Amino acid sequence: MVPNKDYPFWFVYELLKSETPKIISEASGSTFKEISGGRLKQHEVSVPMSTDVMKYNSVFLPLFDKIRQSEEEIDELSQIKSALLNKLF
Questions:
Q1: Do the beta carbons of residue 12 and residue 1 sit within 8 Å?
Q2: Residue among 29, 51, 30, 25 nearest 40 (CA)
Q3: Is the pLDDT assigned to residue 59 strictly greater than 80?
Q4: Which residue spans within 1-89 are E strands per DSSP?
Q5: pLDDT reported for residue 3
Q6: Burial class for 5, CB neighbours closer than 10 Å (0-12, 13-18, 19+)
Q7: Confidence category of residue 65, pLDDT binned at 50, 70, 90
Q8: From CA 89, how far away is CA 87, in angstroms rounded?
Q9: Reduced to 3 states, what is the DSSP secondary structure of residue 28?
Q10: Backbone angles phi, psi at 29, to 5 degrees
Q11: How far, CA to CA in Å, does 36 sit from each of 1, 25, 81?
Protein backbone atom coordinates (compact mmCIF):
# COMPACT_ATOMS: atom_id res chain seq x y z
CA MET A 1 0.00 0.00 0.00
CA VAL A 2 1.35 3.41 -0.95
CA PRO A 3 -0.17 6.34 0.95
CA ASN A 4 -1.59 9.22 -1.03
CA LYS A 5 0.19 12.52 -0.35
CA ASP A 6 -3.16 13.98 0.75
CA TYR A 7 -3.27 11.60 3.72
CA PRO A 8 -0.70 11.83 6.52
CA PHE A 9 1.28 8.68 7.29
CA TRP A 10 -0.12 8.49 10.82
CA PHE A 11 -3.66 8.42 9.39
CA VAL A 12 -2.80 5.52 7.09
CA TYR A 13 -1.14 3.73 10.02
CA GLU A 14 -4.18 4.16 12.28
CA LEU A 15 -6.54 3.16 9.48
CA LEU A 16 -4.60 -0.03 8.81
CA LYS A 17 -4.37 -0.76 12.53
CA SER A 18 -8.15 -0.52 12.82
CA GLU A 19 -8.65 -2.71 9.75
CA THR A 20 -6.24 -5.45 10.86
CA PRO A 21 -8.79 -7.49 12.89
CA LYS A 22 -11.20 -7.46 9.93
CA ILE A 23 -8.45 -8.56 7.55
CA ILE A 24 -7.33 -11.31 9.93
CA SER A 25 -10.92 -12.56 10.19
CA GLU A 26 -10.88 -13.05 6.41
CA ALA A 27 -7.61 -15.02 6.54
CA SER A 28 -7.53 -18.80 6.42
CA GLY A 29 -5.27 -21.42 7.95
CA SER A 30 -5.13 -23.04 11.38
CA THR A 31 -1.41 -22.76 12.16
CA PHE A 32 -0.48 -19.75 10.09
CA LYS A 33 -3.15 -17.24 9.05
CA GLU A 34 -2.79 -16.28 5.41
CA ILE A 35 -4.74 -14.04 3.07
CA SER A 36 -4.29 -13.96 -0.68
CA GLY A 37 -3.44 -10.79 -2.55
CA GLY A 38 -6.67 -11.07 -4.51
CA ARG A 39 -8.71 -11.38 -1.33
CA LEU A 40 -6.87 -8.43 0.19
CA LYS A 41 -7.63 -6.32 -2.89
CA GLN A 42 -11.32 -7.09 -2.40
CA HIS A 43 -11.25 -5.75 1.17
CA GLU A 44 -13.05 -2.42 1.20
CA VAL A 45 -12.07 0.43 3.51
CA SER A 46 -14.03 3.61 4.12
CA VAL A 47 -11.69 6.57 3.79
CA PRO A 48 -12.84 10.08 4.67
CA MET A 49 -12.25 13.00 2.35
CA SER A 50 -8.75 14.43 2.60
CA THR A 51 -10.14 17.79 3.76
CA ASP A 52 -11.72 16.07 6.77
CA VAL A 53 -8.48 14.26 7.51
CA MET A 54 -6.57 17.55 7.39
CA LYS A 55 -9.00 19.08 9.90
CA TYR A 56 -8.47 16.07 12.13
CA ASN A 57 -4.74 16.39 11.55
CA SER A 58 -4.68 20.00 12.76
CA VAL A 59 -6.27 18.93 16.06
CA PHE A 60 -4.55 15.63 16.72
CA LEU A 61 -1.06 16.09 15.29
CA PRO A 62 0.00 18.29 18.24
CA LEU A 63 -1.29 15.56 20.57
CA PHE A 64 0.67 12.88 18.73
CA ASP A 65 3.76 15.10 18.95
CA LYS A 66 3.24 15.49 22.70
CA ILE A 67 2.89 11.72 23.10
CA ARG A 68 6.13 11.18 21.17
CA GLN A 69 7.94 13.78 23.29
CA SER A 70 6.62 12.19 26.48
CA GLU A 71 7.79 8.75 25.35
CA GLU A 72 11.25 10.15 24.62
CA GLU A 73 11.33 11.77 28.07
CA ILE A 74 10.29 8.50 29.70
CA ASP A 75 13.10 6.67 27.89
CA GLU A 76 15.62 9.30 28.97
CA LEU A 77 14.45 9.20 32.59
CA SER A 78 14.57 5.39 32.60
CA GLN A 79 18.18 5.51 31.44
CA ILE A 80 19.04 8.03 34.17
CA LYS A 81 17.30 5.85 36.76
CA SER A 82 19.25 2.78 35.63
CA ALA A 83 22.54 4.68 35.73
CA LEU A 84 21.84 5.99 39.23
CA LEU A 85 20.82 2.56 40.51
CA ASN A 86 24.02 1.07 39.05
CA LYS A 87 26.06 3.67 40.96
CA LEU A 88 24.27 2.80 44.21
CA PHE A 89 24.77 -0.95 43.92
A1: yes
A2: 25
A3: yes
A4: none
A5: 66
A6: exposed
A7: very high
A8: 6
A9: strand
A10: 115, 140
A11: 15, 13, 48
